[in-house]
Write a structure and sequence with these properties.
Layout lengths: L1 E8 L2 E8 L1 H16 L14 H31 L9 E6 L6 E8 L13 E6 L4 H15 L2 E3 L11 E10 L2 E14 L21 E7 L13 E14 L6 H5 L6 H35 L6 H22 L12 H27 L6 H13 L5 H10 L1 H23 L1 E6 L2 H5 L2 H7 L1
Helix pairs in contact: 1-2, 3-5, 6-7, 7-10, 8-9, 8-10
């Protein structure tokens, strides 16, 4: 095997690899000898088929297998000889090969960069905490009450109020033409819920059973269906029923609906849930702060293939979301503009950079994922599919790639925990609104 380096551009290395015709012939013959004892051909005893006849019969199929294996082995050997650590699978292209001739192929490898050392003790981050108030518990109880309330039809002739539900039929038109997704029958709508575009629900307040109303609205400029965005529309709405929410008494009987004996017990359970939710969000904000700090502190070259793969994954997710939002519309999904693509590429670079940093911290500090951690993650996945738990367990039992996808976020969380244990973590008490604020919006304001 001959290996010639043709180019080196940062982390990208290019080679030309040549395997001689004699080496290919030797591999083909060795493979034919290997299968000779298994071949059954009419007129020949097992293992006694002449080599020439065997080659005429199976030579081409064996040659394809031999070439594929030779390319894989040669590329791995070339990588080892050059002392390279690949960041991804090499790109291989056969540039020359004829039956009976030399095999030549080009190979492009992106390698991992040297990762600068991370000293967790030099990192300072802030944990946000919230003190749970009685108002927080009241809000949680109110949400439970709202989720469990029933609705009773209003008396004949009574008008719909905000908070009521209306059973409606509607037909929407733009410039007098009905559009896809703009027609529905027996739709149950809670007024004031914000389910429909701005202005729609407001115009049904005061409506009575049997009313027919023209609801005039304008679709938002950023509406997901570009053929409707910013356009004025008229919905002809028929009100078939108006119902008002029944009063909910917050007493021990109410608590029993949620498995608690008393309201006091329900309030304590609600307090615990609020506490867990605050802790979850606080942890997410702390992790985000740590990743932001690492992203600011460290800069190094990134393997182009890893960045490109992450970028394409982001584009695929965005396009999938667009198609989901466009369901029912005849219009094509809008193109992603260059400014958005530039932002997505920046996000891809950040993810790759942080991924390499965390992987190196985990490697140097022997961070491991125990089998019980994986088992818990698989159980959590199974709980998402009631009645199909057995199929979920079988899927992970037979699919190593699926297990690897579970392992990756578990590993990341363990590495983050490892860094946070050593980092300087201060605490700051904030309001609920501050804790819930979008970190990006906070950063932009700062």
């Amino acid at each position: 095997m001959q290996v010639s380096k043709t180019n080196e551009d940062g982390l990208t290395h290019s080679f030309t690899v040549t395997l001689s015709a004699a080496e290919i012939d030797s591999r083909v013959e060795a493979k034919l000898i290997e299968i000779r004892s298994q071949v059954q051909l009419k007129g020949f005893r097992p293992g006694k088929v002449p080599m020439g006849h065997l080659k005429n019969t199976y030579g081409k199929s064996v040659l394809g297998e031999v070439v594929e294996k030779a390319v894989t082995e040669a590329s791995a050997e070339a990588t080892r000889e050059a002392s390279l650590v690949p960041a991804s699978q090499p790109k291989i292209q056969i540039t020359k090969f004829e039956d009976g001739g030399d095999l030549e192929f080009s190979m492009v490898i992106d390698t991992l960069p040297p990762i600068p050392p991370i000293e967790p003790r030099t990192i300072s981050v802030e944990r946000l905490t919230v003190e749970i108030s009685e108002a927080d518990v009241d809000s949680a109880i109110d949400r439970l009450a709202k989720s469990s309330r029933s609705f009773n039809p209003r008396a004949e002739g009574e008008s719909a109020q905000s908070g009521d539900t209306v059973l409606i039929d509607f037909v929407g038109t733009v410039d007098g033409v009905a559009f896809a997704g703009g027609t529905s029958t027996d739709h149950n709508l809670e007024l004031g819920s914000g389910q429909f575009i701005p202005g729609f629900e407001d115009q049904l307040i005061g409506a009575k059973k049997g009313d027919r109303r023209d609801v005039n609205v304008t679709f938002p400029e950023e509406y997901q269906a570009p053929d409707l965005a910013g356009k004025a529309a008229v919905f002809v709405v028929t009100v078939k029923e108006v119902s008002q929410p029944a009063a909910v008494e917050l007493n021990d009987e109410f608590a029993k609906k949620f498995g608690m004996e008393t309201m006091e017990a329900l309030r304590e359970a609600a307090r615990g849930q609020v506490s867990q939710e605050y802790k979850r969000i606080s942890r997410a904000r702390l992790k985000r702060a740590l990743l932001d700090e690492l992203d600011k502190k460290f800069s190094f070259p990134l393997p182009p293939s890893l960045v490109e793969a992450e970028f394409e994954q982001i584009l695929g997710q965005v396009r999938g979301q667009m198609q989901s939002e466009m369901a029912g519309s005849d219009a094509a999904a809008p193109e992603i503009d260059d400014s958005d693509k530039a932002e997505f590429r920046s996000i891809a670079e950040r993810r790759v950079r942080l991924g390499l940093l965390l992987a190196e911290v985990g490697r140097l500090n022997n961070v491991q994922i125990a089998q019980e951690d994986l088992n818990r993650a698989i159980v959590e996945q199974a709980r998402r599919y009631p009645g199909q738990e057995r199929q979920v367990f079988e899927y992970f039992n037979k699919n190593a790639e699926a297990v690897a996808e579970l392992r990756a976020p578990l590993f990341e969380e363990k590495v983050v925990d490892f860094i946070l244990e050593l980092a300087e973590v201060s605490e700051r008490t904030v309001t609920r609104e501050e804790l819930m604020a979008d970190p990006d919006a906070v950063a932009d304001a700062a």
